[in-house]
Amino acid sequence: MATLNVKGLPADLHHKLCVRARQQRRSVAQEVTSILEQALEAPEPLSILELRGLGKELWAGVDAADHVDRERRSWD
To answer: Residue 40: which H helix or E strand, with range?
Structure first.
């Protein structure tokens, strides 16, 4: 297993890291490893079926045809 040394870590960031590790019942090294794993994990691509309905809460109560008409009129 590799070792990573971080120099110049600001004290407030170190404190936040210690608090987070304690909350997760992990050592600081385990917490750093967990954070790095999450940050560097490649997101799984979504299929077209998984995208269906994405953002629908933004369009709740909006008449789509009326919205398109207003947008087209604004171009003139």
So the answer is: helix 28-40
What does pTM read for this prediction?
A: 0.57
Residue 31: how many CB atoms within 10 A of its CB? 19
* CA-to-CA dists, residue 3 to 10, 12, 33, 42, angstroms: 20, 23, 11, 23
Distance of CA 13 to the CA centre of its chain: 20
* Amino acid at position 11, single letter: A
CA distance linking residue 67 with residue 58, whole number of Å: 13
Please determine, for residue 24, whether its predicted confidence score (pLDDT) is greater than 80.
yes
Q: What is the per-residue pLDDT across 42-71, written as a single tens digit (0 to 9) for each?
A: 888 877 777 777 777 878 888 888 888 888
| DSSP secondary structure letters along 5-32 | ---S--HHHHHHHHHHHHHTT--HHHHH
